[in-house]
Specification:
Strands 1-2-3-4-5-6-7-8 form an eight-stranded antiparallel barrel. Strands 9, 11, 13, 16, 19, 20 and 22 form a seven-stranded antiparallel beta sheet that branches. A five-stranded antiparallel beta sheet has the order 10-12-21-14-15, with no helix packed on it. It has two helices and 22 strands. With 328 residues, it is mainly beta. A hairpin with a 5-residue loop joins strand 7 and strand 8.
Length: 328
């Protein structure tokens, strides 16, 4: 049988694993059975040792996991690498079985009906963890007096090319018409569920302050927390802790941004700086921004800039966006 160049290329890509199903889900009812298993589990070993486990869907009944001794990120974990235990596994019938990837932490976890059971390598049951659904402490925050409400669910008119979804949420790929200097920002976002995608192809967007400095928006649930992952200041600083919730959970960014300063000749005299809280936890504290980040639509300059919500080819949803201008 003679194959065309296109057919050969497709077969090669499929065999090498590059041809992935990148379907994105925004409705939990359509997300499939793996979505019901993915999520966060919390409990205790004995009476004293709190433990949290994040389970990440990888498609086709496969999962990765991370155990946190002390509790989930933002709920007891001390942030140390030696108290973070990666694992992996998949479906075995109607049971999800996960095993540690660290030879020093042997044993397994089994998930069924929203509960996770931990066993030792000797098959001793040592803990029962329940699935939890955390919410940000700033979710639904009301704009203070004097704030500029950019989006409240009624209209996308405050954005260039603003698009509303059928359920009245703001879609990715838009820029605020109004420009700002220094300010406080509240932003709520929802990541699509893309179990077969990986890395930067997994619910990718970005919230660019002044159209210059990106706070990364990405499905980084269960990852280490790098500068190119959710909450990262792209190519500048990684978040202090990865506070990314599972996809299809509403998340929050609360930002205090102070603009760079320039003299009359247009020379920069002071770098911009930023404090970011992700889901209520501080992940950057007065972090200096010495340059505009890669992909920014605007170069650094003395004039104000817009809020830019990047379109990286993945569906993302936004709501409850407001900006409170502040004096330096």
């Amino acid at each position: 049988m003679k194959l065309t160049t296109t057919a050969v290329l497709f077969l090669l890509l499929s065999a090498s694993g590059f041809a992935q199903d990148k379907k994105a889900f925004l409705d939990p009812a359509e997300a499939g059975p793996d979505f019901a298993i993915q999520g966060e589990y919390s409990g205790k070993i004995g009476e004293d040792v709190k433990i949290g486990i994040q389970v990440v869907a990888l498609g086709d009944g496969k999962f990765s996991s991370v155990g946190f001794i002390g509790g989930l990120p933002g709920d007891g974990w001390d942030g140390q690498p030696n108290t973070r235990v990666p694992g992996s596994g998949g479906m075995e019938g109607d049971l999800c079985v996960l095993k540690s990837d660290n030879p020093e932490h042997k044993g397994r976890a089994e998930i069924r009906d929203g509960n996770l059971t931990l066993y030792t390598e000797n098959n001793e049951r040592i803990a029962e963890l329940a699935k939890v659904k955390r919410t940000s402490s700033t979710l639904g925050m009301t704009p203070p007096a004097g704030a500029v409400v950019l989006f409240d669910g009624t209209s996308a008119d405050n954005f260039e090319g603003g698009r509303l979804s059928d359920d009245k949420l703001l879609m990715e790929g838009t820029t605020s018409k109004q420009k700002f200097g220094s300010y406080k920002l509240h932003l709520e976002f929802l990541l699509s569920f893309m179990p077969h995608a990986r890395g930067q192809g997994r619910a990718n967007s970005g919230a660019y302050q002044q159209g210059r400095y990106e706070v990364q928006v990405l499905d980084s649930f269960g990852l280490e927390g790098k500068d190119n992952e959710c909450g990262g200041l792209y190519q500048i600083a990684a978040p202090k802790i990865n506070m990314c919730f599972p996809p299809l959970a509403w998340q929050t960014y609360d930002v205090e941004f102070h603009a760079a300063r320039f003299d009359d000749a247009g020379n920069k005299t002071k770098n911009a700086w930023i404090t970011v809280r992700h889901n209520g936890e501080t992940i950057h504290d007065k972090q200096e921004l010495d340059r505009a980040t890669a992909g920014a639509p605007l170069k650094e300059g003395p004039e104000g800039g817009p809020l830019y919500l990047q379109n990286h080819g993945n569906p993302i949803r936004f709501r409850n966006i407001w900006v409170q201008p502040i004096d330096d």
